[in-house]
Specification:
It comes from Thalassococcus arenae. By secondary structure, this protein is an alpha/beta fold. 41% of the residues lie in helices and 16% in strands. The longest helix is centred in the C-terminal third of the chain and has 23 residues. The radius of gyration is 22 Å and the shape is globular. It binds pyridoxal-5'-phosphate.
Length: 411
């Protein structure tokens, strides 16, 4: 039998769960793109995107996914023949480096493996060695979605400042924005890229590139910028169509408006807090399960773990078997082990991931964890029981209880 019928839950690390309000906002006929509601709505989107990114800088919007944002960031700041430094952890840093190479840019990659965050000390060493200042930008992924490692972006700013290196600091916040704390201006980030389909809770299809005045100067110094990727008219349009280099992504914009309304209403600090508590609940469950049997969290130190995604190892083929079980038997779809292949497990079937980004709350996460615990038991995978109990404890302690008996009675 299967117990999967009912509301399903896509618990993969992007695309994330779309709120009903976002879906409803998108369910409409084509709007006029020359005047009226849609045109009037866009300046408010720009304002609220900057609120989420904690910046007073600029933002350019693209009809693209995260890969498009990577290319856009490079197209505006680095010329073919230039060099970028890419401290990479997990999979996505390598992807950004490959994007640079495809544009004729030399990528100097520092590989920190699949479990450790970027080591700012080694980045500083590489910057110090570059006395001719050939490195034009440092490309760092804030949260690597394959490994669930979170790196310290502010430490990279310090590395650039301490070495007196003028390179731009670029951050990929595609997985982290609207989930993990990120402070573009306070952390001295020059360029930040993100997409619509993770913490922003909108379908895939829009990408955002935030940039500082210093990055704008780099753009102005380039001999040539490809017309479509050029961020200048998108950030400072004279005509409405220039925001999007053509027809606006009409329905995405309505969805984004609804999502940003939700974000503003909850408040970005509260959103970070919610993700932090839910992540701790997940880790608490995993720690108990891992006390006996093969399960392990990919990132040992909680300080280096993302609050948006958690990568786990169960050993081949049990990661895939567990995903199959939760999907077919209970309606919960877990993430695959991305970029985690090993010589004896080329497809990475020993790994799986929990996506917990964006529109997620306590009952979704607790339900997912209980489903996983049932799956482990049903499949006969050794684990210590009680993971769900540990997770409920984290949730119970985090939520403030009414302090006085009178308040309790009033309930
Ligand atoms: C999802 C993701 C990407 C790629 O985004 P696409 O929309 O799939 O192109 C890049 N970097 C990180 C950190 C991501 O999480």
């Amino acid at each position: 039998m299967s117990l999967a019928k009912g509301r399903s839950y896509l618990a993969i690390p992007g695309p994330s769960v779309m709120p009903e309000a976002v879906l409803r906002a998108m369910h409409r006929g084509a709007p006029n793109i020359y005047e009226g509601e849609l045109v009037d709505m866009v300046p408010g989107l720009v304002r609220d995107l900057k609120y989420v990114a904690r910046t007073e800088g600029h933002v350019a919007m693209y009809i693209a996914n995260g890969h498009g944002a990577w290319e856009a960031a490079l197209a505006n700041t680095v010329a073919p023949g230039d060099t970028v430094l890419v401290p990479a952890t997990g999979r996505f840093g390598h992807g950004w480096a490959e994007m640079a190479q495809g544009m004729g840019i030399a990528a100097q990659v520092l590989d920190f493996g699949r479990k450790a965050p970027i080591d700012a000390g080694r980045v500083a060493e590489a910057l110090r060695a570059d006395s001719a200042h050939e490195i034009k930008a440092v490309l760092a992924v804030h949260v690597d979605t394959s490994s669930s490692v979170r790196s310290d972006i502010a430490a990279l700013r310090a590395a650039l400042d301490d070495t007196g290196h003028p390179a731009l600091l670029m951050a990929d916040c595609i997985a982290s924005l609207g989930c993990d704390r990120f402070e573009m201006d306070a952390w001295g980030v020059d360029v930040m890229v993100t997409g619509s389909q993770k913490g922003l809770m909108v379908p895939p299809g829009m990408a955002f590139v935030f940039f500082s005045d210093k990055a704008a100067q780099a753009r102005a110094g380039l001999a040539r910028v490809s017309k479509y990727w050029d961020w200048a008219p998108r950030a400072e349009p004279e005509m409405f169509y220039q925001y999007f280099g053509g027809t606006a992504p009409t329905h995405h914009l309505y969805g984004l408006r609804a999502a940003l309304d939700m974000i503003r209403e909850e408040g970005i600090e509260a959103i970070w807090q919610r993700h932090a508590v839910l992540a701790r609940a997940i880790w608490a469950a995993c720690d108990v399960w891992a006390a006996e049997g093969p399960l392990s969290l990919n990132v040992a130190d909680p300080a280096h773990r993302s609050h948006a995604v958690t990568a786990l190892r169960l050993g081949a083929p049990w990661g895939a078997a567990l995903r199959d079980w939760t999907d077919r038997q209970a309606g919960v779809t877990l993430g695959i082990g991305l970029g985690m292949s090993e010589p004896d497990d080329p497809k990475g079937t020993g790994f799986f991931r929990f996506g917990h980004m964006g529109h997620v709350n306590a009952h979704m996460v607790l339900g997912m964890l209980a489903t996983v615990e049932a799956g482990l038991a049903s499949l006969g995978i050794p684990h210590r029981r009680g993971g769900v109990t540990a997770a409920t404890q984290v949730v119970a302690e985090a939520v403030q209880a009414p302090s006085k008996p009178t308040e309790l009675r009033a309930l």
